[in-house]
Amino acid sequence: MTNEKKYIKTSTIADAISEAIKNSNSFRFVAGGTDIFPNKFQENDTSDCFIDIADIEELKQITYTKDYLNIGALTTLETLKNNEFIAQNFPTLLEAANSVASPVIRKSATLGGNLLCENRCHFYNQSAWWRQAAGHCLKCGGDICLANGGKKYCFSKFVSDTAIALISFNAKIEIVSPEKTEFLYLEEIYSGDGIQHLLLEKSSIIKSIQIPLNIIYKSVFKKLQQRKSLEFSSLTTCITVFKDNKIKIVAGAIAPKPIFVVGALKDDFSELITSIAKNSKIVENDSYSRVYRKNMIRVLLNRSIKEIQLTEK
Amino acid sequence: MKQISLNINNKFYNILVDEHELLSNVIREKIGLTGTKIGCEQGSCGACTVLVNNKAVLSCITPAISCDKAEITTIEALAENGKLHKLQKKFVEKGAIQCGFCTPGMVMTAINLVPELNKNDSPEKLRQQIKEGISGNLCRCTGYKKIIDAIVEYTLDESYKQEDSKFNSIKKLKTVGIPRPYIEAESKVKGEAEFADDIYIKNSLHCKFLRSIYPHAEIIEIDTSEAYKIKGVRYIAIGNELPITFGVLPISQDENAIAIKKVRYVGEIVAAVAADTEEIAAKACQLIKVKYNPIKEFLTIDESLADAGENEKIHEYGKFNNNIQKKAELRFGDQQQGFKDSEITSRMSFEFEGINHGFTEPHASTAFWDENGLTINTATQVPHYLHRALAKVLEVPLSRVRVIKPYIGGGFGGKSDPFAHEIIVAYLSRKTGKPVKVRLSREEVFLTNHGRHPTKMTVEMGFSNDGIIQALDADVAIDGGAYGSFGVVTTYYNGVLLQAPYKLSNFGFRTYRVYTNKPQCGAMRGHGAVNSRFAVESIIDEISYKIKIDPCELRMKNFLDSNTLTVGQYRITSNGSRESLQKVMDLSDWKNRFGKLEKGHGLGVACGFFISGSALPIFWNELPQSVVHLKLDFDGRVLISSGSSDIGQGSDTMLAIIVSEVLGISMENIFVLAGDTLLTPVDFGSYSSRVTFMAGNAAKDATENLKKEIIASVANQKHAIGKELNFENDRIFTNDKSVDLSWMEAVEILTAKRGAVSVSGKYISPKLGGDFKGAGAGLSPSYSFGACVTEVKVDLETGQVDVINIWGAHDCGKAINPLAVEGQLEGSWHMGMGQAVSEQMKYYKGLLLNNNFLDYKIPTSLDTPDINSNIIETMDPEGPFGAKESGEGAIHPVIPAIANAVYNAVGVRITKLPICAEDILTKISQNDLLNNKIIQ
């Protein structure tokens, strides 16, 4: 028996959450849908019910106060580009957003959606037939990781590019769940488990992304990708130097969650990079090899810090 | 199901959709607007782009319900009252349309992009923004350049100055040599041209396949009983129902449409379901139970060279106790002496990954039977060979098979074999008495493959110190996958196609092809010679550094002349090698820049050549290689009927131009009917770069025959001397104007008391070549030549290679349609760049890992430099108006030119493709170590 397929359009957060509760068996929120529908095509997403939140106006506002910039979660990656305030204050966020997928996809893909983008792996992002032929991996219900042969952990890679930039800015997200509304640091929502990479309750919705203003001195974003468009990341890095001389280094696509380290400008930068590399959990699940991606962590980060130092002079 | 209302192109629809149905499906299947194409189903090619509320979206990943009450604009809405939108017009004019499959999506993306651009930006910035804007839309034909040109011109609402014709011909011609859009460009840009999946025959059933999940296994049992219980399942076919084997070559008819007894690769078809809908057929496939008994698999060349145990061989036939399918060896001159005479030698080993054609249109076919027998509409490059295969496997007379080629969304060799899916739908249609349709997913297209062979080779060359080649030896192994395909030809081509463009006296090769348990390989653009050309051009480059002769000069010293024989007795007629190389040297400012760039920045050069049509038919017979019929009727229209296949390369237009040239009539009087084995005479199809040369010559021959008829009747009636009649500007006249007829007046004279006149023309290749075994391989009535210089920047810390310039020149004899030739060249160089830097078929235990357009990395518009293309004209003595091929040969030089540029930039010799950033880094650091040691 297949369950009834549903597609429900909602226009308020409250509606969306109440539909989520009603359909708690098998649902997913859809905004741009640009990651969900390819996953559905490959039968990795088998939700019966899609709850469309794309029309919820309260998720689309971009506002700022003295201390914070608030970006509604449904802001598309393309819309970000057209916001002059963001362009002036957070050019790195625009670089990150512009590095996602392709221009047409960015017209639909939302910032919130990108933060929640499902982890990826060569052995997982395949058709149902392919996964059957390969023998199912841990992430699709099997009992062995095809990338490294292990039986315990899934190392699917975290691929949100915008998350890497936002975490480096110390951004928080505003989460509305059936019980409450709360602000969490973005990095707190990622579990590190490649199978269930989010710690969010499924029926909760990211309302907005809150970025602190006037504390950043400079930040630099880098992404390793084979082609200049269309690509998911092989390695994403962002370094932010704060006005109080703190530094936050974040890297993506090298583990099931973003890896970061916080230090001070006076710290030995090489050690900070070593800490990132040490915490990475790279497996052979990308078009670039494990060793290469690991080596590139140092290259991209050294480049980034040089760029920051250059502007200092 | 849910009812939604859509405003599609200003027409209102209330329509029932499945809750999770995709917009692309609604637009194409429910509304019937098939201009929107499906290329990948995963949002990674852009072919399905439409506007929803004036925003470009990928309709293949957009749920239809989400568009309830939305305004949707598809390609069909752009032209108003039949008049092209200005942007569409630019696409047509600039030659931005080849196969036309990506075109609708590209146009829709562009139309949404242009308002975002700032006209006042510098031209470079504008171009870069356009490149960025279309970078999610893949095109496999054009190399993007002409597409970008079209969008730039539309944005600025102006035309570039037309360059003064750089195609000035030796003899002034009327139609030949004038750049013009394809005759079908308008219907392609409007989204009206029907590709195989756009054709719906009423009452069609849909076919889906169950595919093997083992690389090599015995089939013990197939149980279809559960599958048959699903309502709507009409028939399930299994292998033993189609016991007759087929294959494109007579010597390797080794394939069954559906696997019998055993499977030989992951993805092989094990059962086929015909059902009322695709969904039902897919569901039924999941319920078919197959018991397998796995057999040891052979996944690499090395594994397949080893002795195979009893019952382990992939194919039972074959002389060897291993999985070698074919060995070929030829020796000319005295190689041993040649190497002895050499003062410097270089021997290098190379490895190449498999490459897929990556055409944007997935395979699709619909078959039905009626009183005339079988008709199949299918995406094929060679209707004729499919015609033969269908008759053979289905055991029907040749006279009961009709193959129709609709518009084809690119082929590049990948649609030139008869395919299992084509035979199966024909069979299922016969069993069910209904039309049966199949369309392959992108994953299935990759599994069907027939792409470039993964290859390993060792090549040695010897030179004298003054840079003259003394000897060449090649040892090549190619990985054929599970079946024969064109493989025996590929085996030979890897060797024989090394005997030009350089003079060789002592040359030999040993090549072999192995079967492996992977999707089969076959012919792909530049067939057989791309990888071995890479090896030779790399070695020449290596030698040039060693003996300190400029790599261009070294090549110049060794070129074959025109009108000569190669060591293996290829007859070289026209030869534009020198002109081609000189051209790219001049344009790249080679003399002033080579060797003078900073580390990480390099220039590289390479040359190549290719056949212009295989002189021998695949099925040995006495038929001409091409026949063209012309019919001229009372209306003044000349109908060309030809079995040739326009797959986006512009061959229909080429035929019309030739007829127009000979008769001096305008293109409006010419109509082309092609690629229908009932209505058109046999032509061997689009492979081996044969169409312009062979079908073009047949068209010329036919037109000359028609001209004779016109001359005879006009001369008779007007008492004129036949040879004094001129055909120009839609008139037939003598110089003294004693006869001065309009085309229609002449037609009236011709058809009086006779009616329509039909004539025929043909092309038969002259007898060529030596009389030794293997002498036939690579024989062609003519050969094309060319050269490329590329410029790269290599990131010294990441090893990433950025190709920043490609200057290419190609001797195509005479460009019948320069716009089309440039398009072919730019497409070839773009495709070659893909093989050089990013494309490869990657396997995991015989299972293709990158079976989609996200992971199989065709270069995007942002990765592709603005290619500088140059046509070299040498007027081939036997080509139609001097023309020879331009569709394949150009790919050869570009790949080694990129690798040689990398060497020039960072001193790293590339011996593996695709070029791998990681390898470059490792070798840079090894080189640095070495250099440090030398300094110490």
What is the fourth-level CATH superfamily of the largest domain in chain B?
Aldehyde oxidase/xanthine dehydrogenase, molybdopterin binding domain
The major beta sheet of chain B can be summarized as: 7 strands, mixed
Q: How many beta-strand elements of chain B?
A: 36
The proportion of strand residues of chain B reads 15-25%
Strand segment count of chain A:
12
Short description:
The complex is a heterodimer of chains A (313) and B (936). Chain A has 313 residues and is α+β, with helices and mostly antiparallel strands.
Structure report:
The complex is a heterodimer of chains A (about 325) and B (about 950). Chain A is α+β, with helices and mostly antiparallel strands and about 325 residues long. Chain A has two domains: about 1-60, Uridine Diphospho-n-acetylenolpyruvylglucosamine Reductase, domain 2 (2-Layer Sandwich), CATH 3.30.43; about 60-120 and about 155-310, Uridine Diphospho-n-acetylenolpyruvylglucosamine Reductase, domain 3. Helices cover about 30% and strands about 20% of the residues of chain A. Chain A contains eleven helices and twelve strands. In chain A, the strands form three sheets. A five-stranded antiparallel sheet of chain A has the order 4-5-8-6-7, with no helix packed on it. In chain A, strands 9-10-11-12 form a four-stranded antiparallel sheet, sandwiched between helices. A three-stranded parallel sheet of chain A has the order 1-3-2, with helices on one face. In chain A, helix 5 (about 90-100) runs antiparallel to helix 9 and helix 10 packs antiparallel against helix 11. Chain A starts with 5 loop residues before the first strand and ends with a helix. Chain B has about 950 residues and is of the alpha+beta class. Chain B has five domains: about 1-75, Beta-grasp domain (Ubiquitin-like (UB roll)), CATH 3.10.20; about 85-185, [2Fe-2S]-binding domain (DNA polymerase, domain 1); about 195-300 and about 365-450, Aldehyde oxidase/xanthine dehydrogenase, a/b hammerhead (Aldehyde Oxidoreductase, domain 3, Alpha-Beta Complex); about 455-615 and about 770-930, 2-Layer Sandwich (Aldehyde Oxidoreductase, domain 4); about 625-765, Aldehyde oxidase/xanthine dehydrogenase, molybdopterin binding domain (Aldehyde Oxidoreductase, domain 4). Chain B contains 24 helices and 36 strands. In chain B, the strands form nine sheets. Chain B has a seven-stranded mixed sheet. In chain B, strands 12-20-19-18-13-36 form a six-stranded mixed sheet, sandwiched between helices. In chain B, strand 21 (about 565) and strand 22 (about 570) form a beta hairpin. In chain B, helix 11 (about 385-395) crosses helix 12 (about 420-430) and helix 20 (about 690-720) packs across helix 21 (about 745-750). Chain B is globular and about 80 Å long. The model of chain B is unreliable at about 160-170 (pLDDT under 50). At the A-B interface, strand 1, helix 2, helix 6, helix 8 and helix 11 of A face strand 4, helix 3 and helix 24 of B.
